[in-house]
Amino acid sequence: MVNNKYIKTMAKTKLEYVWLDGNKPTQCLRSKTKIVTDFDGSLDNCPMWSFDGSSTQQAEGNSSDCLLKPVAIFPDPDRKNAYLVMTEVLNPDGTPHESNGRALIDDNDNDFWFGFEQEYFLWNPETNLPLGFPTGGYPRPQGPYYCSVGATNAFGRSVVEEHLDLCLEAGINVEGINAEVATGQWEFQIFAKGAAEAGDQVWIARYLLERTAEKYGLSINWHPKPLKGDWNGSGMHANFSNDLLRNAGSRGVYEQVCESFAPLVTEHIEVYGADNDQRLTGAHETQSIDKFSYGVSDRGASIRIPIGTVENGWKGWLEDRRPASNGDPYKIAARIIRTVKKAEVEVAA
User: Fold this and answer.
1) Alpha-carbon distance 26 to 45, whole Å?
2) Where do the domains of the chain lie?
3) Residues 227 and 275: beta-carbon distance below 8 Å
4) d(CA 152, CA 100)
5) What are phi and psi of 236, to 5 degrees?
6) Which of 109, 118, 216 is nearest to 167 (CA)?
7) Rg, C-alpha atoms of the chain
8) Number of C-alpha atoms within 13 angstroms, CB side, residue 232?
9) Exposure letters 301-328 (e unless 16+ CB within 10 A, then b)
10) 113-348: which CATH topology?
11) Cα–Cα–Cα angle for 207, 89, 91, nearest 5°?
12) pLDDT value for 9
């Protein structure tokens, strides 16, 4: 006989486990819900879980189990009694899966701080065009849409505002939003002290955006150049600093760090997002994909030295403008950290 009184006293909580699949060249978000009893809201009490990796291009059917290791937890403001649990994928023996970009980050002391500027398009799946594009025609050329207001300029604000509120309620450190240069294009910015934490927050923010857009019958287009022609592409500019950059006080140090990126163009572009060659053309505030440059306040450079860094006595941060909107923030951060650490050794020498 079922004890109904006992069942009623057991509090039930939804844990939405979120992970990255093995899709190539661009990984996609996956998630599933685990129901737990008397959950205290802590990451330590999120159990390891598993999934069928043969359905996500992460395993063969004859040995399909992959593990989900919880790495970050956020309240889920869009569901009752629920949390969002960011996880990383492990092999059955507990080693990082080859698709696990988070495991590549060498930042155990959180010396590196990252701010990602995530651009994207609100997309109408029925017309296969951005929100704001008329069927069978074109809107006005870009120009009036950036940081715009009004029904003839800004498209999808209700989605964007709802997403912002959800992120803030979840404890994600969104530092701003704005309409971007092209029709139906928007941006949010996330900052965190710690590379892995920054990546966790970007991925959960992306997840919330995808799920919010569902309710409006819209999708999110993360492609770096979904519109051909004279339209801006979508990037994910990576602002970064470590103790060296925050306290350098020297133009020479900044130039030495920037120069360390020059011989590693290929290595960085490889992890900065698929189809980025369509965006990094030297036009629309980009440097060509096969070139490297840096400069103060130069939005056409590969790396921009912010004017705020200069005015603060060469103490601050750098902005790598090359990462694409569909890039993995974990892999991007891991590659930047590797390059800067090498430069740090050379500066010390």
Assistant:
1) 31
2) 11-99, 113-348
3) no
4) 42
5) -140, 75
6) 118
7) 21
8) 25
9) bbbbbeeebeeeebbbbbbbbbbbbbbb
10) Creatine Kinase; Chain A, domain 2 (3.30.590)
11) 165
12) 62
Task: Compute CA distances 212 → 75, 206, 312, whole Å.
Answer: 15, 10, 39
Q: Check if 11-99 and 113-348 are the same fold.
A: no
pLDDT along the chain (349 residues), means of 10: 58 97 97 97 97 96 91 97 98 97 96 98 95 89 95 97 98 98 97 98 98 97 94 96 97 97 98 97 91 95 97 98 98 98 88
Residues 6+ apart with CB under 8 A from 13: 35, 36, 37, 39, 81, 82, 83
State the pLDDT at residue 2. 56
Residues 6+ apart with CB under 8 A from 28: 20, 21
Record the tokens describing residue 166, joined without a space. Answer: 């959800």
* Crossing angle of helices 195-215 and 329-348, rounded to 10°: 160
Whole-number pLDDT of residue 176 = 98
CA nearest 204: which of 171, 179, 158?
Answer: 171
Q: Which of 27, 91, 32, 34 is nearest to 59 (CA)?
A: 91
Cα separation, 258 vs 51, whole angstroms: 42
Residue labelled with tokens 């163009």: 265
Could you tell me which residues come within 8 angstroms of residue 25 by beta carbon, excluding any fewer than 6 positions away? 274
Q: Please tell me the distance from the alpha carbon of residue 56 to that of residue 62, in angstroms, as a whole number.
A: 14
Let me know if 61 is exposed, middle or buried by CB neighbors in 10 A (0-12, 13-18, 19+). exposed
Query: Which tokens sit at 124?
Result: 């109408």
According to the model, what pLDDT value does residue 49 have? 98
Q: Contact, 239 vs 319, CB < 8 A?
A: yes
Indicate the pairing of strand 294-296 with strand 49-52. unpaired
DSSP state of 137: S
User: Nearest CA to 110 among 284, 288, 242, 290?
Assistant: 242
Superfamily of structural domain 11-99: Glutamine synthetase, N-terminal domain (3.10.20.70)
Q: What is the pLDDT of residue 135?
A: 84
